[in-house]
Design goal:
alpha+beta, 8-stranded mixed β-sheet, 4-stranded antiparallel β-sheet, globular
Length: 695
């Protein structure tokens, strides 16, 4: 541990030394911005709450009507990698339930990235908004507070449990269910609990009757049913049915499928009927929006849902009495993303890149009539809209210079930050550059969007080193400002830091990402089916090589996860163009990684597909890899197996390719500790500076 801390201090010190007077800020300063998540509004009292990560210490903050002045509610102090998520208000708006610790992405064993000797747990807690110490309720996750506020349903080891809300109440297991239970949804009167039971190749909508202590299933089938949503009167449950598919593959285009549908089941009899079915062609394959529920049961018996009928993700609503769906957005080449219902269920709030394709702004639309109206605009980025019970619009927002913050908007006024004092005094907002939107051709001619970060000092006629950043996902889109996901919030900070060191930085929104429509996302031959994104990699490299302010011999690449894959692919296939790279937990052999996401995948049963997957991987081209690379990986990675970097290191040694490594024991894919991000970025900057030598 002493050695690790000494190395971290040395790297950070190096980063501070690099912060010459003309640079004006350090890596530690630009990474000091807190990051908000899980914005949620109480149904009574007008309050909002969110989670704020401040240099790895995560806490719940609240702001109450009418003044909406944010204050910290919990007092966790350590950068221990234990997340806070799944916030749930009690119906009276006086307390918050939340989950502390655990794996919120892959639902595996609890991560312990700080290597705490005492171990870690995933527990459900409750804390009064008026103040006071949180109280542990139970071990578990997925809390759902009953409408009366007297019971808490939750999950423990994927099984359904319940407990009272009073101190001393003992948790009890409600049922012993086959499969994995999830998506708990109370009926409006609190008498029944809908849930999803995931079986190996199908899933059901279950219904637990609290009075009878019995379990039933709604309209069971051979297919995958999910996303249950109760009607306001508690008589019906709407849910999504996705036709069964034995396609045991992933990371390849799916533009069409057997059409998905919305079912409506009677809560008493369990009998169901088809309410609506997607048409064949675009939109026949379901694509989720970012929302607590994929089906929003709105007022006037309307069900709101996402659909890609036009080739772009838009909102629609359909009556439970049967009619053609109503388009809630106008036709156009834009997409909706973060979605919620207003408190009265009459309006839908959503973020979109309409008229501003590389940002997000907020809109409000009637669930019945459509006619969307824009609520925010300008050079900022806004997401996660929620309406307070007092009628104000709460959101998270950022821009090119100012990081993500929670804000409130009353009427037609401008958004106001809820906790401006949470931004550290030394945060260098005024020293950051404003990224420029650029559009350049890929090697095959496809138009690719990017964000260009130019050093603030200007070119002065000299040629500079350049770096290309590839995001992960690949279902992501980098924006013209601080990002709405924590991983890419950090990446944006790193790109700003590299620009401050004198690099020309290009962040690339390559094909198979989001924001530009279904066909762009489901790009032909992408990923494991042909690596068509390499056209975008080459296009980015050629764009920089032809710029008069870039030294063509000093172009490097960096990225994480899928971005690590593209970084490795760039170095393996085009070392003559890309001089150096930093590969964060990248995919190096698709033929092995697919199984991590699709357990049914068996390369022996799909020899041709497995061969194509390998040929689409950096490992297939390692014989032409010459450029040096820094490999960074946590050995508890649940997304991209650590073995991917182990195998690559072995191959690079045999090839005689120089590489260095930075390994984090017990850390997962998206690093949970702030100190690991700081160490990784400091090591990356030092490594790149050695090879590319910015002036």
């Amino acid at each position: 541990m002493r050695f690790r801390h000494w190395m971290l201090s040395l790297l950070i010190a190096g980063a501070l030394v690099l912060a010459a007077p003309s640079q004006r800020f350090t890596l530690e300063q630009v990474l000091s911005a807190p990051f908000p998540t899980d914005l949620t509004a109480a149904t009574k009292g007008g309050a909002v709450a969110w989670v704020l990560d401040q240099r790895g210490a995560r806490n719940i903050w609240v702001a109450e009507a009418p003044d909406y002045k944010g204050r910290q509610l919990t007092s966790y102090r350590d950068d221990d990698g234990q997340e806070i998520a799944e916030l749930a208000w009690t119906p009276d708006g006086k307390s918050l339930v939340y989950v502390h610790g655990g794996d919120f992405e892959t639902r595996r064993d609890n991560p312990n990235p700080a290597s705490l000797a005492q171990g870690v747990e995933q527990d459900i807690w409750i804390v009064p908004v008026s103040g006071g110490s949180p109280r542990k309720v139970a071990e578990g996750n997925g809390p759902a507070v009953s409408p009366q506020g007297d019971r808490l349903a939750f999950l423990k080891k994927n099984e359904l449990w319940s407990t009272g809300m009073n101190d001393g109440d003992k948790p009890v297991q409600l049922m012993h269910e086959k499969g994995n239970t999830g998506e708990l949804r109370w009926s409006p009167d609190g008498s029944r609990l809908a849930f999803v039971s995931v079986r190996t190749d199908h899933s059901f909508i279950g219904l637990y009757d609290a009075g009878a202590k019995s379990v039933g299933f709604l309209d069971p089938s051979l297919d995958r049913d999910g996303n249950p949503s109760w009607s306001p009167d508690g008589k019906q449950v709407a849910f999504i049915r996705i036709p069964v598919s034995t396609r045991a593959f992933s990371f390849g285009p799916v533009r069409t499928a057997q059409p998905w549908s919305i079912r409506l089941a009677d809560g008493d009899t369990g009998k169901g009927r088809e309410l609506w079915r997607a048409s064949e062609g675009p939109g026949s394959a379901f694509h989720a929006m970012v929302a607590d529920d994929q089906l929003l049961f709105a007022a006037s018996d309307r069900v709101v849902f996402p659909w890609e009928r036009t080739g772009y993700q838009h909102l629609y609503s359909v009556s439970t009495h049967g009619d053609k769906p109503t388009a809630l957005n106008r036709d156009g080449e834009f997409e909706i993303e973060h979605v919620s219902l207003s408190q009265d269920r009459r309006s839908v709030l959503f973020s979109s890149n309409e008229n501003d394709i590389d940002r997000r702004h907020l809109w409000r639309v009637s669930a019945v009539e459509g006619n969307a109206a824009q609520a925010t605009r300008g050079d900022g980025i806004e997401w996660s809209p929620v309406e307070t019970s007092a009628g104000a619009l709460a959101m998270l927002h950022s821009d090119a210079h100012n990081p993500a913050r929670a804000a409130i908007q009353s009427g037609k006024g401008e958004p106001r930050d809820l906790a401006p004092d949470s931004i550290p005094a030394g945060f260098p907002a005024s020293s950051l550059v404003t990224p420029q939107q650029v559009i350049f051709p890929a090697a095959d001619g496809l138009q690719i969007h990017g964000q260009l970060f130019l050093p603030a000092s200007g070119s002065s006629g000299r040629k500079r080193p350049a770096m290309i950043f590839f995001h992960g996902g690949s279902r992501r889109q980098m924006l013209l400002g601080w990002h709405y996901m924590d991983y890419y919030h950090n990446s944006y900070a790193m790109n700003q830091y590299l620009a401050s060191l004198g690099y020309v930085v290009l962040s690339v929104n390559y094909r198979s990402g989001i924001g530009y429509g279904l066909n762009f996302r489901e790009a032909i031959n992408y990923g494991a089916t042909g690596a068509s994104e390499f056209n975008d990699v080459m296009g980015a490299g050629l764009y920089l090589r032809n710029r008069p302010d870039v030294d063509p011999k000093r172009i490097g690449t960096w990225g994480g996860s899928y971005g690590g894959y593209l970084t490795a692919l760039a170095l393996a296939r085009a070392s003559d163009l890309f001089a150096v790279g930093v590969d964060f937990h990248g995919v190096h052999d698709w033929s092995e990684v697919i199984h991590n996401f699709v357990p049914a995948y068996d390369p022996a049963k799909n020899v041709e597909g497995a061969r194509l997957a390998f040929d689409s991987s950096p490992m297939s081209s390692v014989s032409t890899w010459r450029s040096p690379v820094l490999l960074i990986h946590g050995d508890d990675d649940r997304n991209v197996p650590f073995h991917q970097s182990v195998e690559l290191a072995e191959a690079l040694r045999k090839q005689g390719v120089p590489f260095e490594q930075l390994i984090f024991p017990d850390e997962i894919h998206g690093f949970l500790t702030h100190k690991r991000w700081l160490e990784a970025y400091a090591a990356s900057a030092e490594y790149l500076n050695r090879y590319l030598k910015p002036e």
